[in-house]
Write a structure and sequence with these properties.
By secondary structure, the chain is an alpha/beta fold. The protein has 2 domains: about 5-220 and about 360-485, Alpha/Beta hydrolase fold, catalytic domain (Rossmann fold); about 225-355, no CATH class. The chain has helices spanning about 5-10, 95-100, 150-155, 160-175, 190-205, 230-245, 260-280, 285-300, 305-310, 315-320, 355-375, 405-415, 435-440, 470-485, and strands at about 30-40, 40-55, 60-70, 80-85, 105, 120, 130-135, 145, 185-190, 210-215, 330, 340, 420-425, 455-460. The strands form 3 sheets. Strands 1, 2, 3, 4, 7, 8, 9, 10, 13 and 14 form a 10-stranded mixed sheet that branches. Strand 13, helix 13 (about 435-440) and strand 14 form a beta-alpha-beta unit. Helix 4 packs across helix 5, helix 6 packs antiparallel against helix 7 and helix 7 packs antiparallel against helix 8 (about 285-300). The protein is globular, with a radius of gyration of 22 Å. It starts with a helix and ends with a helix.
Length: about 500
């Protein structure tokens, strides 16, 4: 899911003695056969479910990575897409049962939660007609486990995570004779951090990618960490605050007519006059403060007095609580279209994220049922959908810095100028805002010729834009075109 779970995980991660571990057992894959109808045509496919061992230099298994692979037989060297989610701490169920796999959890069309019991359905947005699919859960997520506490520590971090998933990819390609297939990586949120890091790490190991698909990107953490002295996020989140206020009809009427034209204007303000005002800090005069507060109020729907009290800096949690405070409602962080209520109308921040609450139950239920019933993978293990199975994440390799894998992606481009990148952004994503992604790609130091290999698309939903059915189908169309263009 998204990087802000880091704070939750740091506070609620289990103590080392209770981190789930289990000995690795080399068991045969569970293979089942299925069929889906896409556009009136039947597509037969095979699902292979099980564990992949991650071993150390002397051949001892240090972890077992759970995965599900979908293959269409009879097509040699078919494109292959390896997908994962983020968190850190999220299993791959979100992309698997929401966007990419052949089956998906049925949500309301706008992405809000339907009444239980939850149901599965064939996914008309699946990518399976374009490529084979592999969904992998990193160590400590899903059913994946380290064998010991020490190896959990090794893999639950910025560098160890890339190493272990990279080894999974090498092993999968080797065991299934897929080195001749066009290879794609797809990641969501922290999964984009991982995918960008892997693009460079795999290139250094001679594994060349055709494409990288980044859904709700976070490559440079400076763009999204509201820390003292880092004013960058306040500018980069502003266009998403504007989109959210527009959706809830809280914006100044002069900006309510057309979202895209409004976002053009707010981008200019965010990187110009607003960024300049923030840079001045305490040197900003009271008159200048009031001018900026007036403009911010028109763009966000927040009162000038609120903005002045907060030093013109709108932290994400304060925004999600404040925008609809007078209505007794909060707005979502993962998807700011969705609304909720909580028990403290006067609080600074919401008690919970209503957009996260809308999806956690349905997706967790669906994955547990689907794995055991449809895929016939029988286990008593807990499926860690979102946190609970990992130690606090280790960022020591980025000590005294913001974690950043954008340079690894730049290196992958330099080593392989044929690689292409697809970037999907949700207008209403307050976890990884679209303007922050645009900023990151504009500051990677890419050679001019590589920019033509980047495709960036926007969707009228949030972090997981695919929970919104029209965005799901648009994403499928866009990805199909991207895969075709990357395999010519």
């Amino acid at each position: 899911m998204n990087l802000f779970l880091l704070l939750l995980l740091a506070q609620s991660a289990p103590p080392p003695s209770s981190v789930p571990t289990q000995p690795y057992k080399d068991e045969p894959l569970v293979v089942t056969n299925h069929e889906i109808k896409l556009n009136g045509k039947a597509l037969a496919y095979k699902a292979s479910t099980g564990m992949m061992p991650i071993k150390n230099s002397i051949g001892e298994a240090e972890a077992g990575l759970f995965f599900v692979a979908y293959t269409v037989e009879g097509t040699p060297n078919r494109p292959l897409c390896i997908a994962f989610n983020g968190g850190p701490g999220a299993g791959s169920l979100w992309l698997h049962l929401g966007a990419i796999g052949p089956r998906r959890i049925r949500m309301n069309d706008d992405g809000s939660m339907p009444p239980p019991p939850f149901k599965m359905e064939d996914n008309q947005g699946t990518w399976l007609d374009k490529c084979d699919l592999v969904f992998v859960d990193p160590v400590g997520t899903g059913f994946s486990r380290a064998t010991r506490i020490e190896t959990a520590r090794k893999f639950n971090g910025f560098t160890g995570d890339i190493d272990s998933v990279g080894e999974f990819i090498r092993l999968y390609l080797a065991r299934n004779n897929r080195f001749s297939s066009p290879i794609f990586l797809a990641g969501e949120s922290y999964g984009t951090t991982r995918a960008a890091g892997l693009s460079g790490a795999l290139a250094a190991r001679g594994i060349t990618l055709n494409g990288v698909i980044l859904i709700s990107s976070i490559l440079n953490f400076q763009t999204a960490r509201f820390t003292k002295g880092n004013d960058l996020p306040f500018s980069l989140f502003l266009p998403t605050y504007t989109a959210t206020a527009w959706y809830h009809k809280k914006i100044d009427p002069m900006y309510q007519k057309d979202l895209k034209s409004t976002l053009v204007e707010v981008r200019k303000f965010a990187e110009g006059e607003y960024a300049s005002a923030l840079m001045k800090g305490d040197r900003l005069t009271q008159a200048e403060r009031e001018v900026i507060a007036t403009k911010l109020s028109k763009f966000t729907g927040l009162s000038q007095s609120f903005l002045l009290r907060n030093d013109l800096r709108i932290e994400i949690q304060r925004f999600t609580k404040e925008l609809r405070r007078n209505d007794g409602l909060t707005v979502g962080r993962l998807d700011s279209r969705l609304i909720g209520t909580d028990g403290d109308a006067g609080a600074v921040s919401p008690e919970f994220d209503p957009s996260n609450a809308a999806i956690l139950g349905p997706y967790t239920h669906a994955m547990n049922q689907y794995a055991r019933e449809d895929l016939q993978y029988k286990t008593d293990s807990t499926y860690f959908a979102l946190g609970g199975g990992i130690l606090p994440w280790d960022y020591s390799s980025a000590q005294n810095q913001f974690a950043d894998t954008s340079n690894a992606l730049r290196i992958a481009f330099d080593r392989n100028p044929y690689m292409k990148v697809f970037v999907a952004n949700g207008y209403y994503d307050l976890a990884t805002p679209f303007f922050a992604t645009e900023y990151t790609f504009a500051h990677m130091g890419l050679a001019a010729r590589h920019h033509q290999n980047i495709t960036m698309k926007e969707y009228e939903a949030g972090h997981m834009m695919y929970i919104h059915v029209p965005s799901l189908l648009k994403l499928k169309t866009d990805i199909a075109a991207f895969i075709d263009s990357s395999t010519r």
